[in-house]
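call fold(seq) -> tokens
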Amino acid sequence: MNQPGKPFSIDKREVYEAYLQVRSNGGAAGVDGVTIEQFESDLKSTLYKI
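ret:
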């Protein structure tokens, strides 16, 4: 089921695997300025909202 604002569904496993890749290469802050450490501080709540 798609969430509002998302044109297609992305499997949670794919999101997690992408996160692991970003984490393994040092993960620079994004355009929002959030560092990987800040993102990980509430990973359970934030990972699948992206």
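The mean pLDDT is 82.
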